[in-house]
Structure to design on (97 residues):
């Protein structure tokens, strides 16, 4: 997506990183660049607003549930098996969840 205007950070780049921005998972320098773009670009700001509302809705509806320990262990086992099958790298089994 592009709004047709020139920005220091491209619209598609900003929108691809909007979840990192919302989750505070980007460094301060990157966060400032994304904020600057959102301040200048109303189409991206509108899309950001939609994503932000979706994040809030998901947190409200799904935030209190946790995966059962048995599911977590099955996932760990499958990841371990995949790593060994794909790379032949030995993986130490941990009893810690």
């Amino acid at each position: 997506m592009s709004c047709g205007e020139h920005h220091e950070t491209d619209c598609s780049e900003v929108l691809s990183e909007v979840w990192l921005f919302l989750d505070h998972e980007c460094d301060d320098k990157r966060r400032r660049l994304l904020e600057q773009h959102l301040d200048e670009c109303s189409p991206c700001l509108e899309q950001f607003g939609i994503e932000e509302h979706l994040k809030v809705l998901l947190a409200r509806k799904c935030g209190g549930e946790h995966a059962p320990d048995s599911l977590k262990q099955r996932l760990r086992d499958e990841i371990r098996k995949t790593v060994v099958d794909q790379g032949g790298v030995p993986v130490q089994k941990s009893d810690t969840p």
User: Anything to note?
Assistant: Residues 11-62 form one domain. The mean pLDDT is 79. The two ends are 41 Å apart (CA to CA).
